[in-house]
Amino acid sequence: MPSALRVLREEVLDTDVLPRVDLLPSTGGCAPADDSDVLLMCRQLAWLPDEDAVHLLKETADALGPDRTLLLVEQVTAADPDDVDAVLHHLRLKCAFGSGVRDQEQVAELVSRAGLRVAARTDIGWDHRLWALAAPAA
Question: pTM here?
């Protein structure tokens, strides 16, 4: 969404990176019809129940094609089980959308169900992970 792109542009991305990145607003998960090799999907699954999350990942992967990479950033279950704010956030998502905050194994399961494979996974801080996703190996 445009507001998320503004935050990425103004608060997250390094100014050296900005000239090399096209930030395109989208309400769906389909990849843009250009020659980009990589698509970043950030926090798109949090509000989706599992079957919708799998559908979005599969639709996006199908639009990307076999030689492109999908980078997925999602919040995962907090390392501290006594973090009251994290528990409340999970409960709000669960009640409102049927999703909740997933752990890294649950995200990996959604990825697998969408027909993708995890090429790499990196912890990026504040209970967020980045997955580099690719088509299944032939």
Answer: 0.69
